[in-house]
Every structure is written in structure tokens, then in C-alpha cells.
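Please think about what follows:
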Amino acid sequence: MNESFLLLSKIIRSRRAVFPQSYEQGLISDEILMEILENARWAPTHKKTQPWRFKIFKNNTLQELSEFLEEHYKQNTLPENFSEIKMKKAGERPLQSSAVIAICIERSPESLIPAWEETAAVACAVQNIWLGCSALGIGSYWSTPGAIKDLPLRFKLNNGIECIGLFYMGWMKKNLDLPSERKALEEFIL
């Protein structure tokens, strides 16, 4: 195998969900964020619709996102299901992160592209983001809180924008043990 393939395989196989409590303090520069999103832009997309849209939260806007997530949990959780701990965790995650990217989609008309293909294109873009983060030592994970459906209205995103997740990012603490298991390849071959 050539070096490029071996390096790519290593990055793919070392990618993990790393949660904000495992992030160190420290900013991710705008330059790094833009390079990571540039890789997202090169994801495959049927008919080149490029449906992905990204809203970046960093610095002061992380506090706004934190307040929004806490308030949404408080207002949309039945009293019998309410947990002060869950509410606080929802608000803490953005503040423990260096940046959070709202993963959004602007769908083409269904007559042009089936909705699932647009969603798949966005998922491919997120995989490119995740692999870039892994290569740089940036911990990250994709979360889909219930609040995500109300995020476009709260943060005044264009009509037609739908958010499908939050992508948390932060420099990983040193010496994290991040094991992962996968079933044997033979189980997937038909």
C-alpha cells in the first residue's frame, strides 16, 4: 500500500467521538476552522447541490448557545422527566468547547434530489470535518439535541435552513484512552 492510503486509513480508524469534558482550554484558530470546513466543502454531492450549511459558535456566541440549550430543555421537558443535571450538562457542553458548529442543510427541491441524498451529502461533509479534527488532535462529536429544530429561528438563519446537529470541538486532553471496537469485516460482506 502507498503512504497516502496508509495515513488515510490510520486517520479513519483512529477517529472517535470525544466529548467536551475531555477537552482542554484553548482556542481553535479561525484559520484551522476554515481549513476544516474547506475539507467539508469537498464532500460528494449529487448534482453538485452542496446542501451543507454551517453556523459557527465560538467565543461569546458559545454562551448564547449554552443559554439557548438550557432554556430549551427547561421549556420543553415535562415536569416528570425534568432533570437539573441534564439541563446543566446541556448548557455546559458549549462552554467546555472551543467551537461548536451547527450542522445545517438547505435542501434542493425533492423533484431535483431526494431528501435522503441531501442528508447523506451533509453526513459526508461532517465525516470530512471529523477526520480533519482527528488528524489535528481536536476532539469532536456530533450531537442531535431536541433543541436543534428551533435553532434556525433562535439564531435567525435563512428560511429553508434546517439544522440536523451540533458538532462540538476542542483540543483533546493528553493521553486519552479512546478504544473502539468494530465487528469483523466478514460480518458485513454479503
